[in-house]
Design brief:
single chain, about 200 residues, mainly alpha, globular, transmembrane helix, Ferric oxidoreductase domain-containing protein, transmembrane, membrane
Length: about 200
């Protein structure tokens, strides 16, 4: 008795949602919110990735947890990024060619191009991160590390894209982006300092 009722209930629910205008409100929110959620998720991914390299405060178990959070927020960020791109194309803010080929948007080639370029780098970092075990040997490991470090540049491109390509950011968004920027810069500086100490470059 319940099996036929479930599809009918879902169809009724969808009909009510469409008739009430809730779908239009959802699309309107995602038109702005999907990009923000992608940027926030990727910012958190960068921060947790930096935290996962800490050896002064975190123990091995904590670093494993940080790596798990880093991967999880990265996956969430890519999901929101895909949704953001789909919404922008569906709403006519850009076209599929501009979304796929950097710096080809007719209205804002630079700002949209930065977003496209950042997306490609994030995807490459995610794919190579998932198959890190394939990068064995000193040379391959250096290539992997260099590609993974390019995520910082991609995050910077995404930050500029998010702030300038869409509608003017609200005050709280600017404050949030500034906090993320400062946090990443400070954590990255500490990581570089610790790395130099470990190699004996600093006393």
């Amino acid at each position: 008795m319940l099996r036929p009722a479930l599809p009918a209930s879902l169809l009724l629910f969808l009909a009510v949602v469409l008739r009430s205008g809730a779908m239009d409100a959802l699309l309107s929110f995602l038109d702005f919110g999907a990009g923000v959620l992608a940027l926030v998720s990727l910012s958190v991914t960068v921060l947790w990735g930096l935290a996962a390299t800490d050896r002064m405060v975190l123990k091995s178990g904590h670093r494993l947890l940080a790596q798990a959070v880093h991967r999880g927020t990265g996956i969430a960020g890519l999901g929101f990024l895909a949704l953001h791109i789909w919404i922008k194309i569906a709403q006519g803010h850009t076209d599929a060619t501009a979304a796929a080929v950097p710096f080809t948007d007719g209205a804002r080639p630079g700002l949209i191009g930065l977003g496209t370029l950042a997306a490609y780098v994030f995807i490459a970092v995610a794919v190579t991160g998932a198959v890190r075990g394939a990068f064995t040997g000193i040379t391959a490991s250096r290539w992997w590390r260099g590609l993974h470090m390019s995520a910082y540049a991609a995050w910077g491109f995404a930050l500029v894209h998010g702030l300038r390509a869409g509608r003017p950011a609200a005050g709280y968004a600017l404050v949030g982006y500034a906090i993320c920027l400062v946090a990443v810069a400070v954590r990255l500086a500490l990581r570089m300092r610790d790395s130099r100490r470990n190699t004996g470059e600093l006393p």
